[in-house]
């Protein structure tokens, strides 16, 4: 694929997982890339001897660091064309047993951190009258799973505000795409997810207990290939008509159509009641 090498990518959460692979792939493709992570030492290898790459320290929950990183990127390369909001964590627990401090920490990273970076980058994109925001959501932002209720909530929030941004930013030539992966071999469940083991006896023999036990074993057998996911992001960025939503993985594709069918069934079953609530 031909790439627009003058484009500048700004990527969060590059120390591991999707972020690292997207940074590695875009740098190799010749783009100018700003790779960021809370621990800069973990991404120095990505940029060593690469004139088209810059590594920066960035905790997305620190507004001062966000401002400094965005300014440093513009000072280095003159612009930001593609923002990849990848930084995020997971949390496994039943809703009833979830711990508030862990929930709020996840919202600060997955939602408020994403929005902090976005709102700091937007003035530059508006001035350019161009840009592309790539927000990592999840299949869990389109449908919910047991033990991931609050994680689902963070991703539903990302979905909702991104769909608003699509409409608000279109007049400025800025595009927005939501990335919705299924299971990928990024060690997400083992590396960057907190797990609160069930303490309420009623949950232990249910799907909650089963899923927590599976999560505790970590991943490594998922069908999704992070390298192919990174290549898919380049395809989206180079497309003249990029999608608002991009499902990644066969599992995500199949799950969402099952959800759509279930929604249709529910809506049609109660159609008379729904339509009967308007004034005559």
Automatic annotation (TrEMBL):
<comment type="similarity">
    <text>Belongs to the short-chain dehydrogenases/reductases (SDR) family.</text>
</comment>
<protein>
    <submittedName>
        <fullName>Short-chain dehydrogenase/reductase SDR</fullName>
    </submittedName>
</protein>
<dbReference type="InterPro" id="IPR051911">
    <property type="entry name" value="SDR_oxidoreductase"/>
</dbReference>
<dbReference type="GO" id="GO:0016491">
    <property type="term" value="F:oxidoreductase activity"/>
</dbReference>
<dbReference type="Pfam" id="PF00106">
    <property type="entry name" value="adh_short"/>
</dbReference>
<keyword id="KW-0560">Oxidoreductase</keyword>
<dbReference type="InterPro" id="IPR002347">
    <property type="entry name" value="SDR_fam"/>
</dbReference>
<dbReference type="InterPro" id="IPR036291">
    <property type="entry name" value="NAD(P)-bd_dom_sf"/>
</dbReference>
């Amino acid at each position: 694929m031909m790439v627009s090498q003058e484009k500048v990518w700004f990527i969060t959460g590059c120390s591991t997982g999707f972020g690292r692979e997207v940074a590695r792939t875009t740098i190799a493709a010749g783009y100018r890339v700003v790779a960021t992570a809370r621990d800069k030492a973990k991404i120095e290898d990505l940029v060593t001897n690469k004139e088209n790459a810059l590594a920066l320290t960035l905790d997305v929950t620190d507004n001062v660091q966000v401002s400094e990183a965005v300014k440093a990127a513009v000072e280095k390369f003159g612009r930001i064309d593609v923002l990849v909001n990848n930084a995020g964590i997971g949390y496994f627990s039943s809703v009833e047993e979830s711990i508030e401090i862990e929930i709020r920490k996840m919202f600060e990273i997955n939602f408020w951190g994403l929005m902090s970076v976005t709102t700091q980058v937007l003035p530059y994109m508006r001035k350019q009258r161009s840009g592309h925001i790539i927000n990592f959501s999840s299949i869990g932002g389109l449908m919910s799973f047991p033990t991931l209720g609050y994680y689902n909530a963070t991703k539903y929030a990302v979905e909702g505000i991104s769909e608003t941004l699509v409409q608000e930013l279109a007049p400025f030539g800025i595009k927005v795409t939501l990335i919705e992966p299924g299971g990928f071999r990024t060690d997400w469940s083992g590396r960057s997810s907190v797990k609160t083991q069930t303490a309420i006896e009623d949950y232990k023999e249910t799907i909650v207990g089963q899923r927590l036990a599976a999560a505790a074993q970590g991943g490594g057998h998922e069908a999704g290939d992070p390298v192919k996911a990174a290549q898919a992001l380049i395809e989206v960025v180079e497309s003249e008509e990029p999608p608002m939503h991009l499902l990644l993985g066969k599992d995500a594709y199949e799950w969402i159509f099952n959800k759509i069918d279930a929604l249709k069934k529910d809506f049609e079953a109660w159609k008379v009641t729904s339509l009967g609530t308007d004034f005559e």
